[in-house]
Amino acid sequence: FVPQKVQDFVDRGVQLERVASGAAHSIVQAVNGFVYAWGANDRGQLGVDHTRNLQQPHEVVSLRGSKISSISCGHEHTMVLIGREVRTFGRGTEGQLGHANFKDQLAPRRLTFFKPEIRARAAYCAKHYSVVLTDYGDMFYFGNVRHRSKTIDTPLISNVPRPFRNLDKAYFAGCGGQEITLIIRQTQRPPKRHIIRNESGMQSVEEDSVASGTLVGRVYTFGQHKSGQLGHPDVKAPLSAPFVVELMCHTSVLKITCGHDFSSCVSDEGRLYCWGGNRFGQLGTGDTKSRPVPNYLIWCREPLHPRSKHMANKRFVNVQAGKWFVMAITNKDKVYVIFHAV
């Protein structure tokens, strides 16, 4: 299998600006403002007001001319950000559309909760839930962020947007199967160090570090932790509140993403880190052993060079995870894919 051009766009000379994909559907925005969708549509996730699957790109007429700033696809639902307005459509059985019900929505519908003064600026979809960040650093979630264990049984389920309390200003998020990773920009000293109190919680202890005036991105995680995807090696139970990943406090993080049970991020220096489940080799470690702590990738392979090469001279600028793989882009527009070739 190799990447193929979408011939319909080639024939019409359509230039794309944004692309998003779910489990079996894709939505793109063209430079001219038109929005196209194709793929599975049994829950209305294409937003074309019916449930027939589409084999070729079809215009989403209700979004024509909209100034979209963000598109995100979940497993079977979609969210778009138009200015400060949030619209959702597709599967709603877990409350992931945020319309105060558990019904599917066949066409883009505005979330009235997000008024202009809330200043929504980023939208993220996971399998069964959605997250919206604001200019003020607030985070709202809706849907089913479920995590259960013997010591914790507090599923986060809501069919309307709810703010996550006691959270520092978040400016970037990654949504996995049952966990959320956040990048929080801070100007003060590195965040509190945490020690384990028991399997169901953590106790905070102040660091003896010197305050720093630089703006840094810290990684916070919470949710399910079965495969080590939260980056806390001493934690066995799910976390119901965000805690800093201590082993990433030595660097500032620029981008972050989540797969089904793993996480990956790019630092300001351009380094690529992965941690969590590794069933299909998606962490790039050369094996399939899970890693509960962030792992800095130092080796890669080029198409014409079968031997591994050191990545010391490579600077990554973006990273995106699928369910079982990672794609990363360097500042020279080279794309690297991490997965287990069967």
Write the layout of secondary structure elements.
Blueprint: H1 7-12, E1 16-21, E2 25-30, E3 35-39, E4 54-59, E5 68-73, E6 77-82, E7 85-90, E8 105-110, E9 120-125, E10 129-134, E11 139-145, E12 156-163, E13 170-175, E14 179-186, E15 193-198, E16 201-205, E17 216-223, E18 239-244, E19 253-258, E20 262-267, E21 272-276, E22 291-296, E23 299-302, E24 305-310, E25 316-321, E26 326-330, E27 335-338
Antiparallel strand pairs: 1-2, 2-3, 3-4, 5-6, 6-7, 7-8, 9-10, 10-11, 11-12, 13-14, 14-17, 15-16, 17-18, 19-20, 20-21, 21-22, 23-24, 25-26, 26-27
Structure description:
- The protein is mainly beta and 342 residues long.
- The protein contains 1 helix and 27 strands.
- About 9% of the residues have low confidence.
Radius of gyration: 20 Å
- Give the fraction of residues assigned to helices: under 10%
Largest sheet: 4 strands, antiparallel
Question: Which spans of ≥5 residues are poorly predicted at pLDDT below 50?
Answer: 147-154, 190-212
Class by alpha and beta content: mainly beta
Quote the average pLDDT. 83
SSE string = HEEEEEEEEEEEEEEEEEEEEEEEEEEE
DSSP summary: helix tally: 1
Spatial separation of the terminal alpha carbons: 12 Å
The 3D shape can be described as globular
Q: What portion of residues belong to β-strands? A: over 45%
The number of distinct β-strands equals 27
Strand order of the largest sheet: 1-2-3-4
Quick structural overview:
This protein is mainly β. It contains one helix and 27 strands. The model is unreliable at 147-154 and 190-212 (pLDDT under 50).
